[in-house]
Amino acid sequence: DHNISLESMGVTVNAVAGALKAFFADLPDPLVPYSLHQELLETSKIMDKTERLHELKEIVKKFHPVNYDVFRYIITHLNRVSQQYKTNYMTADNLSICFWPTLMRPDFENREFLSTTKIHQSVIETFIQQCQFFF
């Protein structure tokens, strides 16, 4: 219901963001499928920006249709939030730091994974920054 005003109900932005992150954390599988994580990592190493963006777009097309629709919605929303960074201080970088672990649900116990956390974060940042290209 787009007529509901959470602000008038006293619900803070942090509470909404926390609820959203909790929702994604409780899904049986992450929104960004595990099966595509390695491919995303490899694509992020492509030096040519245009080629990298096109490859990322092809990977997103491999998402299950429901995951794709939800990912498109959340990334587009995060892009809108990032456009207000002068007011909310939430740049695409800040948002990707907050949301990549929830959207990708990495294995923090895996030592190999720890070396790729910045790459995962930068992939989500790219999706936020370039959402008009991807969607």
Automatic annotation (TrEMBL):
| GO cellular component assignments | cytosol
Instruction: Extract the InterPro entries matched here.
Output: Rho-GAP_domain, Rho_GTPase_activation_prot, RhoGAP_dom
The record ties this protein, via Pfam families, to:
RhoGAP (PF00620)
SUPFAM superfamilies annotated for this entry?
A: GTPase activation domain, GAP
What's a GO biological-process term for it? regulation of cell size
**Molecular function terms, GO-annotated:** GTPase activator activity
Q: Which Gene3D superfamilies match?
A: Rho GTPase activation protein
SMART domains reported in the protein's UniProt record:
RhoGAP
Q: Which parts of the sequence belong to the Rho-GAP domain?
A: 1-135
Identification of the protein by name: RHG05 protein
Question: Which species is this record about?
Answer: Peucedramus taeniatus (Olive warbler)
